[in-house]
Write a structure and sequence with these properties.
Length: about 110
């Protein structure tokens, strides 16, 4: 049974993925999952997820040249970062549950 922290985390993730925004919920969900992204977004989102210190203005310029404006890029970068954090959180809870015999309460 989810505790309050888990419920709030799920609310945040759901709002980022499906709430109102400048980008379609479908694209935000794909960005959250880091799956099936348009080629112009792939370099930026890959860096958000795996190498954030390497993000450059050129990464934003490439996505911007493909038609994404600043508000859309903000939403997509946020979705990617929270999605990555979400995967790490879920992995951590699973590892904790395994180590404690299913008693993780994250």
């Amino acid at each position: 049974m989810p505790n309050e922290k888990q419920s709030r985390y799920r609310e945040l993730a759901d709002r980022i993925r499906t709430g109102k925004g400048a980008v379609s919920a479908e694209l935000r969900d794909r960005t959250f999952r880091n799956a099936d992204l348009p080629p112009a977004l792939r370099p930026l989102i890959d860096k958000v997820v795996s190498r954030p210190a390497e993000i450059t203005d050129a990464d934003f310029a490439t996505a911007g040249a493909a038609g994404f404006d600043e508000d859309q890029l903000f939403e997509l970068v946020t979705a990617a970062a929270v999605g990555h954090s979400s995967r790490m959180y879920e992995s951590g809870l699973a590892a904790l549950a395994e180590a404690t015999g299913g008693k993780a309460d994250g």
